[in-house]
Amino acid sequence: MQEKLNVGSKEVFKAGSALAAGVAKRGETCGALTGAIMAIGTLVGRERLEDREQLQISMEVADQVYVLFREKVGHTLCSEIHKIRYGRAYRLFISEESEAFHNMGGHSRKGCPEVCGIAARVAAEVILDLKRK
Amino acid sequence: MSFAKMWGKNEIKRGGHRMSEKELLDEIFELALKNDMNYLG
Questions:
Q1: Interface mutation vs chain A, best among B3, B21, B24, B30, most A CBs within 10 Å
Q2: Which residue in A59, A133, B24, B31 has a CA-CA distance of 20 to 30 Å to A119?
Q3: pTM of the model
Q4: Three-state DSSP class for B18?
Q5: What residues of B are in contact with residue A4 (Cβ under 8 Å)?
Q6: What is the ipTM of this complex?
Q7: pLDDT in tens, B1-41
Q8: Domain ranges of chain A
């Protein structure tokens, strides 16, 4: 997203580092989805706490990303996405399960990498749609 | 800052050639996929 659409910044990139694997490897909301919403937020997020109108706009746009992501991936939780893609959830904060995840090809094309691709594409679609408005 | 104003610096161009939306989305998909494979795996 940063490279192709010039969205975000070094600070935003840094801030998203520990979102991977469902927030610090805990299997919660998919880091690709939260990263996509962060990217959108750099464009439509509020700059002042009291700007409720912009907050509402950013919520509506983020919801579009959420809904499209869930439709295409089947779930928004990392552990549930694991079940869909791999048949079981891997608790990546446990070193043995993390190793098993890598050994069975968790980062092969059809696993989490494809989910990241879908999240980025969905966010880009929403950004391009905003541009048309 | 409005989105339209923000977008002013985000023109979709590569080498002076304006990409189609599908080309751009395909590239974004593939780049995100490969970044995950290469840097999170």
A1: B3
A2: A133
A3: 0.88
A4: strand
A5: 24, 27-28, 31
A6: 0.90
A7: 444 444 444 455 555 566 788 889 999 999 999 999 988 76
A8: 2-132
